[in-house]
Write a structure and sequence with these properties.
Oligomer: single chain
Structural class: mainly alpha
Number of strands: 4
Radius of gyration: 13 Å
CATH topology: Arc Repressor Mutant, subunit A
Length: 109
């Protein structure tokens, strides 16, 4: 990993740590907030790389329509869903119910 990507990952983690309990945001929203709107995939890579850091709530970051696309990167097949449900987030068929209601936009907070 390059120094630039390490710095970007740290910025991603700073934003992710601000996502309130019981709320979610998207890879794209974080990328846009960091001034790198086309880097949603890199935000996903950062979330995957954060698996050993308990201070990063990676389970609160989903795709732009509320699908739990990162679930395969959590231990066990349903850990991401279980973590979200433990925070009161309702999920049906790997997608967040009322996504627009619980969506947290870092640019507006």
């Amino acid at each position: 990993m390059t120094k630039t990507s390490e710095n970007f990952f740290e910025k991603v983690y700073e934003v992710a740590r601000q996502i309130p309990y019981g709320r979610v945001t998207s890879y794209g929203a974080i990328a846009k907030y960091l001034g790198a709107a086309r880097s949603a995939r890199m935000v996903g890579w950062a979330m995957n790389a954060s698996s050993n850091d308990d201070t990063v709530p990676a389970h609160r970051v989903v795709n732009r329509i509320g699908v739990l696309t990162g679930k395969h990167h959590f231990q066990g097949t349903s850990l991401m869903q279980q973590l979200l449900e433990s925070e009161g987030v309702e999920i049906k068929e790997h997608k967040i119910v009322n996504f627009e209601t619980i969506f947290w936009d870092p640019a507006k907070q």
